[in-house]
Amino acid sequence: MRRGGTTQGIVPFYVLAVAITTACSFACWVAIPYVALNVVAAQSGPWLRTAQEALLVMAACGPGSAALIVTGLRSGRAGVRSLLHSPVRRAGSWAVLGIVLAAMAVCYLGPSWLGIAYGQAVPGRGGFSVSSTSATMWVGLIVGALGEEIGWRGFLQPRLRTRFGDLLSCVLVAGLWWLWHYFCRLPFAMGSGGWFLLSVSGSQLSLGMTILPLSMILFRVYQWTGQSVIAVSVAHLVVNLLAVAQLSLFDPERPVSWYWCVALLWVAGAIACVVRFVPGPE
Fold first, then answer.
1. 210 burial via Cβ count (<10 Å: 0-12, 13-18, 19+)
2. Which pLDDT tens digit goes with each residue over 3-58?
3. Domain spans in the chain, listed from the N-terminal domain onward
4. I need a labelling partner for 104 at 20 to 30 A (CA). Which of 98, 183, 247, 275 fits?
5. Which candidate, 191, 170, 278, 267, places its Cα nearest to that of 227?
6. Tens digits of residue pLDDT in 142-177
């Protein structure tokens, strides 16, 4: 049975998801630094970073929170249980998930590793350091993946799919997902000065190059595992970790490895789009 067989609730879900995420992001990047600087007269400190990271986790959970609220108001506890109850229902699903994640590792890390091996990239030249990431942010990656997938694949995708089909629903989810990221990052630009809007736009452009194939791949994972939010959240988490690893390897002065990464993701997305393999019995 297809979960979410109606398009009702899509608009309030998305508005609420954007509102929750933007509010938490605004509090993180604008409100808390203002209070720290003007009220307690302390520009930085451990408490400031912890509070900001907690708010970032809450921001990432905006889609999931919105899905639970809208589902609870419309369908009650039974609807919420249906949304959250998502075991892997098909035999062989975890094997398929492993294959997909291995392919993602090749897409993200293969070009950088080859570049390092042939002297075309320098390890550690990326603008990201794994060692500088706190425990709160690592927890946030895990919780955020689940918080996003409850909303995007658990709530939104099935409703769009009933009306628009597989491919167009992936395109629509990708567009709404991309726009949600922009609202998530916009308060950071506000807190850093208006000029930083250009940088946010640049990061959104980079995200836009990969978000559609990722939408297709994650949708197939969700479908192949019997509409399991847990399985697709694992896939989303691994993609986040691979992106972190790729950022730590990426050499901004030699971006060819990034372009190869994008190209490989599009190939993987195209394969996911046309392959209709369903493991095990329904």
1. buried
2. 555 678 999 999 999 999 999 988 888 888 777 666 655 555 677 777 888 888 89
3. 10-274
4. 183
5. 278
6. 888 999 999 999 999 999 999 999 999 999 999 999
